[in-house]
Amino acid sequence: MTLRCGFRSDAAGDFKLVVVAERVRVREIDDDEGQRLLRIVRRGTGSVVTWRRAQMVLLSAQGMDPVKIARVTFTSPDRVRDVISNFNSGGFDSLYPKYAGGRPPVFTLPARREIKKIAKSKPAEHGLPFSTWSLAKLADFLVAEGWSTTSATRACERFCVRKASHFNG
Fold first, then answer.
1. pTM for the whole structure
2. Beta-bridge mates of residue 3
3. Which residues sit opposite 8 in a β-bridge?
4. Which one of 86, 97, 106, 157 is separated from 50 by 20 to 30 angstroms, measured CA to CA?
5. CB burial class (10 A; 0-12, 13-18, 19+) of residue 3?
6. Are 117 and 168 in contact (CB under 8 A)?
């Protein structure tokens, strides 16, 4: 980010030195990119988030400053600057939302069977120095075997707690 220096007068007429960040503008876009942005904006189908982000980038490419773009798109100037900066660094991929969340992954029958097999086995069979599994030890073992922490914890809760009588028996 580049900074600019300038003078601004206050209500009393005194001049003060101010340092202002350089105005954020979209990088130079070629004709193909401009046409792609226009298609996204004109299409009207798909994600509203993508449409609004493309609109912000297109308006910036046409020379509009972030404050005016914010008024047109009913958002904050900071959000407009973020969208433009993200587009400058990430290109068109930055226009598409990256949602993370939603429903947890469903465990497949083979995955359930594998977890159950491990839970019913003795820890010593896997070279571990304890005689019985606890949920924490089983989850740690599953993570060490390549399962994600969330999946291992969820698997232990879902499949082992309900059937505690199956542990080592």
1. 0.52
2. 21
3. 16
4. 106
5. exposed
6. no
CA distance 13 to 138: 72
Rounded Cα–Cα distance for residues 129 and 13 (Å): 79
Report in angstroms the alpha-carbon separations of 21 from 29, 71, 85, 97, 140. 22, 20, 13, 27, 48
Provide CB contacts within 8 A for 153, sequence distance 6+. 139
Is the CB of residue 83 less than 8 Å from the CB of residue 133?
no
